Amino acid sequence: MEGSWLVVLVIFEMALSVQSQLRTGFYSTSCLRAEAIVRSTVESYFRKDPTIAAGLLRLHFHDCFVQGCDGSVLIAGSSAERNALPNIGLRGFEVIDDAKSQIEAFCPGVVSCADILALAARDAVGLSDGPSWSVPTGRRDGRVSLSSQASNLPSPLDSVAAQKQKFSDKGLDDHDLVTLVGAHTIGQTHCQIIRYRLYNFTATGNADPTINQSFLSQLQALCPKNGDGTKPVPLDKDSQTDFDTSFFKNVRDGNGVLESDQRLWDDAATRDVVKKYAGTIRGLFGLRFDTEFRQAMVKMSSIEVKTGTDGEIRKVCSKFN
Protein backbone atom coordinates (compact mmCIF):
# COMPACT_ATOMS: atom_id res chain seq x y z
CA MET A 1 0.00 0.00 0.00
CA GLU A 2 2.77 2.39 0.98
CA GLY A 3 4.55 1.61 -2.30
CA SER A 4 1.50 2.52 -4.41
CA TRP A 5 1.09 5.80 -2.51
CA LEU A 6 4.75 6.54 -3.18
CA VAL A 7 4.22 5.97 -6.91
CA VAL A 8 1.19 8.29 -6.89
CA LEU A 9 3.18 10.92 -4.99
CA VAL A 10 6.10 10.72 -7.43
CA ILE A 11 3.74 10.99 -10.43
CA PHE A 12 1.98 13.96 -8.78
CA GLU A 13 5.30 15.71 -8.13
CA MET A 14 6.45 15.06 -11.70
CA ALA A 15 3.19 16.52 -13.00
CA LEU A 16 3.63 19.59 -10.80
CA SER A 17 7.21 19.98 -12.01
CA VAL A 18 6.15 19.79 -15.67
CA GLN A 19 3.24 22.14 -15.03
CA SER A 20 5.52 24.68 -13.37
CA GLN A 21 7.85 24.98 -16.38
CA LEU A 22 7.46 27.50 -19.20
CA ARG A 23 6.34 26.05 -22.51
CA THR A 24 5.49 27.27 -25.99
CA GLY A 25 1.76 27.51 -26.57
CA PHE A 26 0.91 27.63 -22.85
CA TYR A 27 -2.33 29.49 -23.66
CA SER A 28 -3.31 27.40 -26.70
CA THR A 29 -6.40 26.05 -24.92
CA SER A 30 -6.99 28.60 -22.13
CA CYS A 31 -6.69 31.79 -24.24
CA LEU A 32 -6.05 31.02 -27.89
CA ARG A 33 -6.10 34.66 -29.03
CA ALA A 34 -3.60 35.94 -26.46
CA GLU A 35 -0.50 36.03 -28.68
CA ALA A 36 -2.41 37.48 -31.65
CA ILE A 37 -3.82 40.28 -29.48
CA VAL A 38 -0.35 41.18 -28.18
CA ARG A 39 1.03 41.18 -31.73
CA SER A 40 -1.71 43.41 -33.16
CA THR A 41 -1.44 45.82 -30.21
CA VAL A 42 2.34 46.19 -30.57
CA GLU A 43 1.91 46.64 -34.31
CA SER A 44 -0.62 49.46 -33.91
CA TYR A 45 1.74 51.42 -31.62
CA PHE A 46 4.76 50.62 -33.80
CA ARG A 47 3.04 52.08 -36.89
CA LYS A 48 2.68 55.39 -35.06
CA ASP A 49 6.17 55.33 -33.53
CA PRO A 50 8.78 52.71 -34.59
CA THR A 51 11.04 53.71 -31.66
CA ILE A 52 8.54 52.06 -29.28
CA ALA A 53 10.09 48.71 -30.31
CA ALA A 54 13.31 49.48 -28.46
CA GLY A 55 11.26 50.72 -25.51
CA LEU A 56 9.40 47.41 -25.20
CA LEU A 57 12.59 45.37 -25.52
CA ARG A 58 14.27 47.44 -22.81
CA LEU A 59 11.20 47.17 -20.57
CA HIS A 60 11.37 43.36 -20.72
CA PHE A 61 15.12 43.37 -20.10
CA HIS A 62 14.80 45.65 -17.04
CA ASP A 63 11.94 43.51 -15.72
CA CYS A 64 13.96 40.29 -15.93
CA PHE A 65 17.03 41.72 -14.18
CA VAL A 66 15.07 42.59 -11.01
CA GLN A 67 13.04 39.86 -9.28
CA GLY A 68 13.16 37.80 -12.49
CA CYS A 69 10.75 38.08 -15.45
CA ASP A 70 7.64 38.63 -13.34
CA GLY A 71 6.15 41.93 -14.52
CA SER A 72 7.35 43.71 -11.36
CA VAL A 73 8.61 46.67 -13.43
CA LEU A 74 5.03 47.36 -14.57
CA ILE A 75 3.72 48.20 -11.07
CA ALA A 76 2.96 51.90 -10.53
CA GLY A 77 3.73 53.62 -7.21
CA SER A 78 6.27 55.96 -5.65
CA SER A 79 8.37 53.14 -4.14
CA ALA A 80 7.86 50.71 -7.05
CA GLU A 81 10.61 49.37 -9.29
CA ARG A 82 9.75 51.54 -12.28
CA ASN A 83 10.59 54.68 -10.24
CA ALA A 84 14.16 53.58 -9.50
CA LEU A 85 16.84 55.80 -11.02
CA PRO A 86 18.02 53.20 -13.60
CA ASN A 87 14.41 52.86 -14.80
CA ILE A 88 13.78 56.54 -15.44
CA GLY A 89 12.98 56.80 -19.14
CA LEU A 90 11.49 53.31 -19.52
CA ARG A 91 8.74 53.35 -22.15
CA GLY A 92 5.96 51.12 -23.44
CA PHE A 93 3.82 50.69 -20.31
CA GLU A 94 0.71 51.83 -22.19
CA VAL A 95 1.24 49.13 -24.85
CA ILE A 96 1.28 46.37 -22.22
CA ASP A 97 -1.74 47.87 -20.41
CA ASP A 98 -3.68 48.08 -23.69
CA ALA A 99 -2.91 44.46 -24.66
CA LYS A 100 -3.80 43.28 -21.15
CA SER A 101 -7.21 45.01 -21.15
CA GLN A 102 -8.06 43.47 -24.54
CA ILE A 103 -7.00 40.00 -23.39
CA GLU A 104 -8.97 40.34 -20.14
CA ALA A 105 -12.13 40.93 -22.21
CA PHE A 106 -11.67 37.48 -23.82
CA CYS A 107 -9.97 35.46 -21.08
CA PRO A 108 -10.23 37.14 -17.68
CA GLY A 109 -7.60 36.14 -15.13
CA VAL A 110 -5.67 33.80 -17.42
CA VAL A 111 -2.73 35.59 -19.09
CA SER A 112 0.00 37.16 -16.97
CA CYS A 113 1.44 40.62 -17.53
CA ALA A 114 4.92 39.05 -17.42
CA ASP A 115 4.03 36.87 -20.43
CA ILE A 116 2.48 39.81 -22.30
CA LEU A 117 5.75 41.71 -21.81
CA ALA A 118 7.86 38.78 -23.08
CA LEU A 119 5.61 38.40 -26.14
CA ALA A 120 5.61 42.15 -26.84
CA ALA A 121 9.44 42.24 -26.77
CA ARG A 122 9.55 39.42 -29.35
CA ASP A 123 7.00 41.17 -31.59
CA ALA A 124 8.85 44.49 -31.30
CA VAL A 125 12.04 42.86 -32.65
CA GLY A 126 10.13 41.16 -35.49
CA LEU A 127 8.52 44.45 -36.56
CA SER A 128 11.98 46.04 -36.68
CA ASP A 129 13.11 43.53 -39.36
CA GLY A 130 14.71 41.35 -36.71
CA PRO A 131 14.16 37.66 -35.98
CA SER A 132 11.04 36.14 -34.46
CA TRP A 133 10.96 33.17 -32.12
CA SER A 134 8.59 30.99 -30.14
CA VAL A 135 8.24 32.49 -26.67
CA PRO A 136 7.81 29.87 -23.92
CA THR A 137 4.98 31.15 -21.70
CA GLY A 138 3.47 30.29 -18.33
CA ARG A 139 5.08 33.03 -16.21
CA ARG A 140 3.11 34.40 -13.30
CA ASP A 141 3.21 37.96 -12.01
CA GLY A 142 5.24 38.85 -8.93
CA ARG A 143 3.77 40.40 -5.80
CA VAL A 144 6.81 42.56 -4.96
CA SER A 145 8.03 45.71 -6.72
CA LEU A 146 10.56 47.89 -4.89
CA SER A 147 12.75 50.62 -6.36
CA SER A 148 15.45 49.71 -3.82
CA GLN A 149 15.93 46.34 -5.57
CA ALA A 150 16.76 47.92 -8.95
CA SER A 151 20.18 49.26 -7.94
CA ASN A 152 22.10 46.43 -9.61
CA LEU A 153 20.71 46.91 -13.13
CA PRO A 154 23.37 47.16 -15.87
CA SER A 155 24.46 50.78 -16.36
CA PRO A 156 25.94 52.69 -19.33
CA LEU A 157 28.85 53.54 -17.02
CA ASP A 158 29.71 49.89 -16.28
CA SER A 159 33.13 48.44 -17.03
CA VAL A 160 33.20 45.14 -18.91
CA ALA A 161 34.00 43.36 -15.64
CA ALA A 162 30.91 44.88 -13.99
CA GLN A 163 28.73 43.97 -16.98
CA LYS A 164 30.03 40.39 -16.97
CA GLN A 165 29.35 40.05 -13.25
CA LYS A 166 25.79 41.40 -13.49
CA PHE A 167 24.95 39.06 -16.36
CA SER A 168 26.67 36.12 -14.68
CA ASP A 169 24.58 36.73 -11.55
CA LYS A 170 21.53 36.04 -13.73
CA GLY A 171 22.95 32.88 -15.31
CA LEU A 172 24.02 34.62 -18.54
CA ASP A 173 27.54 34.20 -19.95
CA ASP A 174 29.84 36.59 -21.85
CA HIS A 175 28.40 35.50 -25.19
CA ASP A 176 24.87 36.21 -23.96
CA LEU A 177 26.03 39.62 -22.74
CA VAL A 178 27.31 40.77 -26.14
CA THR A 179 24.41 39.20 -28.01
CA LEU A 180 21.77 40.86 -25.81
CA VAL A 181 23.54 44.24 -25.84
CA GLY A 182 23.13 43.95 -29.63
CA ALA A 183 19.53 45.02 -28.97
CA HIS A 184 21.00 48.54 -28.94
CA THR A 185 20.84 48.32 -32.73
CA ILE A 186 17.32 49.80 -32.33
CA GLY A 187 17.81 51.81 -29.15
CA GLN A 188 18.37 55.44 -28.29
CA THR A 189 19.78 57.43 -25.38
CA HIS A 190 19.88 61.14 -24.57
CA CYS A 191 22.58 63.79 -24.71
CA GLN A 192 22.72 64.10 -20.91
CA ILE A 193 23.71 60.43 -20.62
CA ILE A 194 26.74 60.68 -22.94
CA ARG A 195 27.83 64.32 -22.62
CA TYR A 196 30.62 63.44 -20.15
CA ARG A 197 32.23 61.27 -22.87
CA LEU A 198 32.26 64.20 -25.29
CA TYR A 199 33.60 67.02 -23.11
CA ASN A 200 34.93 65.89 -19.73
CA PHE A 201 35.80 62.21 -19.76
CA THR A 202 37.25 61.06 -16.40
CA ALA A 203 37.26 64.75 -15.38
CA THR A 204 40.11 65.54 -17.81
CA GLY A 205 38.25 68.21 -19.76
CA ASN A 206 38.78 66.12 -22.90
CA ALA A 207 36.70 63.61 -24.88
CA ASP A 208 36.87 59.84 -24.42
CA PRO A 209 39.91 58.90 -26.58
CA THR A 210 38.22 55.66 -27.72
CA ILE A 211 35.61 57.61 -29.74
CA ASN A 212 36.40 57.74 -33.45
CA GLN A 213 37.34 61.37 -34.23
CA SER A 214 34.87 61.93 -37.06
CA PHE A 215 32.09 60.38 -34.98
CA LEU A 216 33.06 62.59 -32.03
CA SER A 217 32.43 65.67 -34.21
CA GLN A 218 28.99 64.30 -35.15
CA LEU A 219 28.09 63.65 -31.51
CA GLN A 220 29.31 67.07 -30.39
CA ALA A 221 27.22 68.71 -33.12
CA LEU A 222 24.19 66.71 -31.99
CA CYS A 223 24.88 67.35 -28.28
CA PRO A 224 26.46 70.80 -27.74
CA LYS A 225 28.16 71.33 -24.38
CA ASN A 226 25.29 73.37 -22.91
CA GLY A 227 22.52 72.14 -25.21
CA ASP A 228 19.27 70.28 -24.55
CA GLY A 229 20.10 67.21 -22.44
CA THR A 230 16.86 65.43 -23.40
CA LYS A 231 17.70 65.37 -27.12
CA PRO A 232 17.59 61.73 -28.36
CA VAL A 233 20.74 60.07 -29.70
CA PRO A 234 20.49 56.81 -31.71
CA LEU A 235 22.63 54.00 -30.26
CA ASP A 236 23.23 52.74 -33.81
CA LYS A 237 24.21 55.70 -35.97
CA ASP A 238 23.57 53.84 -39.24
CA SER A 239 20.16 52.20 -38.89
CA GLN A 240 18.30 53.15 -35.72
CA THR A 241 15.02 51.40 -36.59
CA ASP A 242 16.48 48.30 -38.30
CA PHE A 243 17.45 45.28 -36.24
CA ASP A 244 20.80 44.40 -37.83
CA THR A 245 24.52 43.93 -37.12
CA SER A 246 25.67 47.52 -37.80
CA PHE A 247 25.78 48.14 -34.04
CA PHE A 248 28.70 45.69 -33.77
CA LYS A 249 30.53 47.33 -36.68
CA ASN A 250 30.15 50.64 -34.83
CA VAL A 251 31.70 49.20 -31.65
CA ARG A 252 34.55 47.74 -33.73
CA ASP A 253 35.17 51.12 -35.39
CA GLY A 254 35.04 53.28 -32.23
CA ASN A 255 31.51 54.48 -32.96
CA GLY A 256 29.82 53.06 -29.85
CA VAL A 257 27.59 55.69 -28.23
CA LEU A 258 27.44 54.37 -24.67
CA GLU A 259 30.70 53.88 -22.78
CA SER A 260 29.56 50.39 -21.69
CA ASP A 261 28.99 49.41 -25.34
CA GLN A 262 32.37 50.68 -26.53
CA ARG A 263 34.12 48.91 -23.63
CA LEU A 264 33.06 45.55 -25.11
CA TRP A 265 35.95 46.06 -27.54
CA ASP A 266 38.48 46.35 -24.66
CA ASP A 267 38.03 42.81 -23.34
CA ALA A 268 39.36 39.78 -25.24
CA ALA A 269 36.32 37.55 -24.61
CA THR A 270 33.67 40.14 -25.52
CA ARG A 271 35.75 41.50 -28.43
CA ASP A 272 35.75 38.05 -30.05
CA VAL A 273 31.95 37.98 -30.06
CA VAL A 274 31.72 41.56 -31.39
CA LYS A 275 34.17 40.62 -34.18
CA LYS A 276 32.09 37.58 -35.08
CA TYR A 277 28.92 39.63 -35.51
CA ALA A 278 30.70 42.53 -37.23
CA GLY A 279 32.09 40.29 -40.00
CA THR A 280 32.16 41.50 -43.57
CA ILE A 281 29.89 38.79 -45.02
CA ARG A 282 26.63 40.57 -44.21
CA GLY A 283 24.17 37.74 -44.81
CA LEU A 284 26.11 35.07 -42.93
CA PHE A 285 26.81 37.17 -39.84
CA GLY A 286 23.34 38.74 -39.80
CA LEU A 287 21.87 35.23 -39.85
CA ARG A 288 24.19 34.10 -37.04
CA PHE A 289 23.28 37.12 -34.89
CA ASP A 290 19.56 36.54 -35.52
CA THR A 291 19.85 32.89 -34.46
CA GLU A 292 21.93 33.58 -31.37
CA PHE A 293 19.81 36.57 -30.34
CA ARG A 294 16.71 34.33 -30.36
CA GLN A 295 18.47 31.82 -28.11
CA ALA A 296 19.76 34.50 -25.74
CA MET A 297 16.31 36.09 -25.45
CA VAL A 298 14.66 32.77 -24.54
CA LYS A 299 17.40 32.23 -21.94
CA MET A 300 17.06 35.75 -20.51
CA SER A 301 13.26 35.64 -20.42
CA SER A 302 13.45 32.52 -18.23
CA ILE A 303 15.41 34.24 -15.43
CA GLU A 304 13.90 33.44 -12.01
CA VAL A 305 10.39 33.05 -13.43
CA LYS A 306 7.41 32.40 -11.19
CA THR A 307 5.26 29.49 -12.36
CA GLY A 308 2.68 27.02 -11.07
CA THR A 309 1.08 28.50 -7.96
CA ASP A 310 3.80 31.09 -7.29
CA GLY A 311 2.82 34.74 -7.77
CA GLU A 312 -0.52 35.77 -9.29
CA ILE A 313 -2.24 36.65 -12.56
CA ARG A 314 -2.85 40.40 -12.30
CA LYS A 315 -6.14 41.88 -13.49
CA VAL A 316 -4.40 45.20 -14.24
CA CYS A 317 -0.67 45.21 -15.02
CA SER A 318 0.13 48.33 -13.01
CA LYS A 319 -1.52 47.09 -9.80
CA PHE A 320 -1.26 44.02 -7.58
CA ASN A 321 -4.55 42.15 -7.21
UniProtKB/TrEMBL annotation:
Family: Belongs to the peroxidase family. Classical plant (class III) peroxidase subfamily.
Cellular component GO terms held in the UniProt record: extracellular region
Record's signal peptide: 1-20
Classification lineage: Eukaryota, Viridiplantae, Streptophyta, Embryophyta, Tracheophyta
Biased composition (Polar residues): 145-154
Active site residues of this protein: 62
Gene3D superfamilies the UniProt entry points to: 1.10.520.10, Peroxidase, domain 2 (1.10.420.10)
Name of the protein described by the UniProt record: Peroxidase
